[in-house]
Amino acid sequence: MKDVKNMKIEKYRPYPPVNLPNRQWPNKTITEAPQWCSIDLRDGNQALSIPMNLEDKLAMFDLLIDIGFKEIEVGFPSASQVEFDFLRKLIDEKRIPDDVTVQVLTQAREHLVKRTFEALDGVKKAIVHFYNSTSILQRKVVFRKTQAEVKQIAVDAAKLINRLKDEYANDGIRVQYSPESFTGTELDYAIEVCTAVMQEFNCSEENKIILNLPATVEMTTPNIHADQIEYFCNNLPNRKSAIISLHTHNDRGTSVAASELGLLAGADRVEGTLFGNGERTGNLDVITMGLNMFSQGVDPKLDFSDINRIRDIYIKHTRMDVHKRHPYAGELVYTAFSGSHQDAINKGMNFKHEDGIWGVPYLPIDPEDVGRTYESIIRINSQSGKGGVAYIMDVEYGFKLPKAMHPDFGAVVQKITDTLGDELPNAEIKKIFDKEYLNQSKPLQLKKCHIEIDTAENERYTKVLAEIAFNGKKLEIKGSGNGPINAISEALKQDCGINFKLLDYTEHAINHGSESLAVAYICVEITPGNPIYGAGLDSDIGLASVKALFSALNRSLNC
After folding, report:
1. Residue 431: phi, psi to the nearest 5?
2. Which of 55, 165, 384, 473 could be a cystine partner for 388, CB 3.0 to 4.6 Å?
3. Are the C-beta atoms of 69 and 36 separated by less than 8 Å?
């Protein structure tokens, strides 16, 4: 066995907990959506191996508008000409809706701040988002500055922005400040820096600043992140003069949970990207967090009702993939291969809840609510069971197999999937059904069949005259009884010497397709203890039932 000491565990230490003995967030629930800000066009874009071009960014901007974002970080206009030109195009061509605010990022450096204001000239509504890193590690390793020196960087940038706001005289420009790497910063020091910045802007309840608290690198469990946010909110002077914003990354794989708990802890706003695109392991996934709320009956105020379209546009313009198991949007997330899961989903789909509340096992939301169809809910492989196969036949093709027939057809399909070792497409399952049940012609083959119904003295009699082949020999058989099945059964027993019991019969109409057809299912027993099903399909229900009987007998005789 490999020695686990090779993992060098001594290089790491646990993240220190927050001293918050009277924490309140565990007792709260999310009851309304936060203010959302998409950072796809900035944080998401800078994480792409091939950054989006102008056409890509415009398409993504339009998509974000369609989804319902009211705040969109469109780029870092002082960082490159492409970013600058994109913002100018949005402004000059009046592409920004009146109810949408664009956000731009800049470091707390004088020439970058000035270039940012040049890019914003003439904008109706915008947020200038400036930042500098305040974390212990950044101060020690990168900047080699004291707490006072790092705070002064933020204060000086705030003064410059104040002056430029006056010069450009644009009341539509608001301010956001991020103590970058907030989660690696001493909490009291982060509060000190943010308070100093707020003082420079003379913040009030009417003139709020956005204080964005980035988990630039996710360093701890979501509960400690919530403690950090609650501590910050509780101890920030003039708290009502600030909008507290979250910006979580996914280094530990818990960015969604960290943001959800951060909202419980007092935050007002959330920044994130579609599908969690971002540096390293990504940003908060807005789609997952929003649909998590949706699944709890909370309106996320974002429209994900056409998730496939969102995914397609995202893939095209970011050149990123969406994992097949991605929450809510992945190709396979509304799919079940497990037999027990398929059976539970099948039953859940057919169960009617009186209160109208969604309740289907293994499906936290109705796939139709995000524009997905039931076609892909259940897919069949060697792990699948009878319920899944029956569901496919019902939903895709309109065949409502009797419950007792589910194991019969399920066993037929599983034998094939065991041999193939691969998934079976729905069309292949239908072909198997047709071959196994509808197209059985040996040793019994029905060539012609005439059904005549007589009513005499209030009694109903059915006569059947049929041309058949039995073991290759052509025969003409006839019989009578109280219905087509009874009549043809008597004929087969008498003229062909086939002895069997009729155990079950069901029928229904199929309205899938242009013409209405009837299907019948019959279970017979030739060998005691071995019931066998057959199926028949025809525009005439009487003929469908006769075909079903021949199907069942052929399957029995071929066992």
Report:
1. -65, -40
2. 384
3. yes
Domain count across the chain: 3
Residue 521 belongs to domain with CATH number: 3.30.160.270
CA 111, CA 241: separation in Å to the nearest integer?
A: 28
> How confident is the model over 148-185, as pLDDT tens digits?
999 999 999 999 999 999 999 999 999 999 999 999 99
Domain end point (choices 240, 266, 296): 296
Domain membership of residue 322 (yes or no) is: no
Cα 98 to Cα 475: distance, rounded to the nearest angstrom:
82
- The enclosing H or E element of 110 equals helix 110-119
CA atoms within 13 A on the CB side of 558: 17
Q: Check pLDDT > 60 for residue 475.
A: yes
> Residue 71 is part of which domain span?
34-296
Pairing relationship of beta strands 473-481 and 459-470 according to DSSP bridges: antiparallel
Distance CA 295, CA 284 (A): 18
pLDDT at 512: 62
pTM for this prediction: 0.74
CA separation for the pair 125, 193 (Å, rounded): 26
Distance CA 220, CA 16 (A): 9
In a domain, 5, yes or no: no
Tens of pLDDT, residue by residue over 56-65, are 999 999 999 9
Does position 422 have pLDDT exceeding 90, yes or no? no
In 10 A of CB 45, how many CB atoms? 26
